[in-house]
Design goal:
single chain, 533 residues, mainly beta, 1 helix, six-stranded antiparallel beta sheet
């Protein structure tokens, strides 16, 4: 039986873009969310295009795989490296694929999402019904920890009755292109089939430096038909770094203190302390807990102390600290957690990380300290296997207990382009000492001729010399907004913001090899290969 779905939950996380090495499937079962892998890969003039993903579940009784869900890309924006424009989702029911819902994506020139539209399919009317719509004001901008959205619709569609059951619509009024003025929220009214039930209002104020200063929430009172004060956030800054955050609750006719956060920073801008306050019966702020951070010369966190406030002694009392160690490549090797016993630090918990030559994680060991036996006890262990290049994960096994007992396994296979072709999740059966399949994803790709695709960036970009031993000159017909250099694993090595038609990029710090270079201009983005010899 089909159930109702709150589509906002799926769509709001659908495109947290990750690489194929990090997530090799769209559906993250543990987080119950959608993730994304690179949908297009180019190699020797051929483009591999991801067409669809099909999910199967394993029937233990029949010992066979049964189809469950399907995802298909039906059109693309080639100007965004082939990211999806339209997609369809299906559910397998009554031995046939049934359309579940439709998604459409529009992008800003810098390839960030501008609009998201989701339509649920109405079996009775045989048409799509709008369920979710996000319209972003501008790319990569936010205020008060909110992405700037002109309008957003969040609805629940019940497939049992083929109709919307509830939802919310929010629209915004702006002071400038990057600043909110007011936001209004309305609930869906099934009687009128409109979003006409007033809910909340938010107002925004800014300081003389145009930084967020006050954010106020109001609730709609149906009796008085007015917006009434509810909650208020106030922000103070030091050298443009957040210094204090005040939260107030409105009661009767006055604002009452709720909580407060204060921050201090090192001269290099790294956070030094974070102090939280709560309120007492006299509506006064009193300390609650504090974090204190210590970094090495490279800006890596090496110590973090946690304190709680003792009202009797009127002072901070340490209760836990964590110590971080790294290797020469600045990869985290160990997180050690200790607890304060009033006199000394007692060992408590630790995470130990092991890597391969390519810097990929091969083992995570999580242990707790047993004070009675003075030994470390294994709680969890995860091992990672990779393909011969050491870059693409082929197997991940989770263990529990000491000695470690297998619990779950994730297996991934790839084609010759290193695109995933199958992903299988299995669980361990102690009775038979074997892996029992649970679900799997099959990925379907197709080949396109790169020379036959339209050129989305109709402008010239010159890189000279290429290959180069030290510096390259990058020149364009249009102003270069940013340049991003990657190694072949996708790790970002350097970012420049020249805001001119010409720029010099040094390759001196990097070893010989092939690199990827993204160049964003006012007329679009181009990706080039750069070789250091």
């Amino acid at each position: 039986m089909k159930k109702g779905l709150t589509f906002l939950f799926f769509v709001s996380v659908a495109f947290s873009f990750t690489t194929a090495q990090e997530e090799t499937h769209f559906f993250n079962e543990n987080a119950n969310k959608l993730t994304f892998l690179n949908p297009v890969k180019t190699s020797h003039g051929t483009i591999r295009v991801l067409d669809s993903i099909v999910k199967f579940v394993y029937d233990l009784v029949l010992s066979e795989w049964k189809p469950k869900d399907k995802f298909a890309i039906i059109s693309r924006h080639w100007g965004t490296d082939g990211w999806p424009n339209e997609m369809l989702y299906y559910s397998y029911k009554d031995n046939a694929w049934k359309v579940y819902y439709y998604q459409k994506f529009d992008y800003f020139p810098n390839h960030s999402l501008e609009k998201i539209l989701v339509k649920a399919y109405n079996d009775f009317l045989e048409e799509f019904i709008d369920t979710v719509f996000f319209d972003h004001r501008a790319p990569y901008r936010d205020q008060f920890s909110d992405s700037l959205r002109i309008m957003e619709i969040e609805a629940n569609y019940d497939f049992n009755v083929n109709s919307l059951t509830y939802g919310y619509k929010t629209y915004s009024v702006f002071l400038t292109d990057s600043q909110y003025h007011e936001r209004y929220s309305y609930a869906y009214n099934p009687a009128t089939e409109k979003y006409d039930i007033k809910q909340e209002k938010e107002t925004y104020e800014y300081n003389s430096q145009n930084l967020p200063a006050i954010k106020t929430f109001y609730n709609w009172n149906t009796s008085t038909e007015t917006y009434e004060n509810s909650e208020r956030y106030m922000y103070a800054y030091y050298n443009n770094g957040l210094l204090k955050t005040y939260v107030h609750q409105y009661f009767s006719t006055i604002w009452l203190n709720s909580n407060k956060e204060e921050y201090t920073y090192y001269p290099n801008g790294l956070k030094k302390t974070s102090v939280s306050y709560i309120t007492n019966s006299m509506n006064q702020f009193i300390p609650d807990y504090k974090d204190s951070m210590v970094y090495n010369s490279n800006g890596l966190l090496i110590k973090k102390y946690y304190y709680g406030w003792n009202n009797v002694q009127n002072q901070w009392i340490p209760w836990q600290r964590s110590t971080y160690t790294y290797n020469a490549q600045e990869l985290l090797l160990q997180e050690l957690f200790e607890q304060w016993n009033g006199t000394n630090w007692d060992l408590y918990f630790r995470n130990t990380y092991t890597y391969n030559a390519q810097g990929k994680l091969t083992q995570l060991l999580q242990e707790g300290y047993d004070k009675v036996t003075s030994t470390w006890i294994i709680y969890y262990k995860t091992t990672y296997q990779y393909d011969p290049t050491g870059l693409y994960e082929t197997e991940r096994i989770n263990y529990v207990g000491d000695p470690p007992t297998p619990f779950s396994r994730y297996s991934t296979t790839y084609d010759s382009y290193n695109n995933p072709t199958m992903y299988i999740y299995s669980t361990w059966d102690n009775g038979t000492s074997s892996w029992i399949p649970d679900y799997k994803y099959i990925y379907y790709w197709s080949d396109w001729n790169a020379n036959a695709l339209p050129d989305p960036e109709n402008f010239s970009l010159n890189i000279y010399p290429n290959p180069s031993q030290n510096e390259i000159l990058i020149s364009s017909d249009y102003s270069i907004q940013y340049i991003q250099l990657y190694d072949i694993t996708g790790k970002t090595l350097n970012i420049l913001n020249p805001n001119s038609r010409n720029c010099i990029l040094s390759l001196t710090p990097y070893p010989r090899g092939t690199y990827l270079l993204d160049v964003m201009t006012s007329h679009g983005k181009i990706r080039k290969l750069v070789i250091k010899n």
